[in-house]
Amino acid sequence: MSGTWTYVCATAELLPGEMRTAFDEVTGAGIVVFNLDGDLYALEDKCSHEDFELSSGDFDPGEGSVVCVLHGARFDVREGRPLCAPAYEPVARFPVKTEAGGVWARDDRD
């Protein structure tokens, strides 16, 4: 498990209804951070149905979901759980924090 936090962006660059991406500095995993009404959530930037970036899809802040453009799988950005087929497995959730004017996340999987 990595204890190293990865800088995603300045807090002012991630407004409600927006998302930003980064790559974990230790594991290389893609991370997508969502601002849902001022609360930040980080998921692995990879659809659990097929290896494709969730950040390429549409973030729906009203529903709190992101849709994978490849096959239409939809995920809850707060928990990473799938909301419809063809995805049945959740997307990995990562810790996210704000510190020193920035947004930080990390891949905390063992």
Characterize this entry briefly.
The chain is mainly beta.
- Structural Rg: 13 Å
The figure for the number of domains is 1
- In the CATH hierarchy, the architecture is 3-layer Sandwich
CATH topology assignment:
Rieske Iron-sulfur Protein
Structure summary, number of beta strands? 10
**SS-based class:** mainly beta
Strand line-up of the largest beta sheet? 2-3-4-8
Organism: Luteimonas composti
Protein name: Non-heme iron oxygenase ferredoxin subunit
Keywords: 2Fe-2S, Iron, Iron-sulfur, Metal-binding
InterPro entries: Rieske_2Fe-2S (IPR017941), Rieske_2Fe-2S_sf (IPR036922)
Give an overview of the whole structure.
- With 110 residues, this protein is mostly beta strands.
- The chain has a single domain, classed as 3-layer Sandwich (Rieske Iron-sulfur Protein), CATH 2.102.10.10.
- The protein is 0% helix and 38% strand.
- It has strands spanning 6-10, 19-23, 30-36, 39-44, 58-60, 65-67, 74-76, 93-94, 96-99, 102-105.
- Strands 2-3-4-8 form a four-stranded antiparallel β-sheet, with no helix packed on it.
- The radius of gyration is 13 Å and the shape is globular.
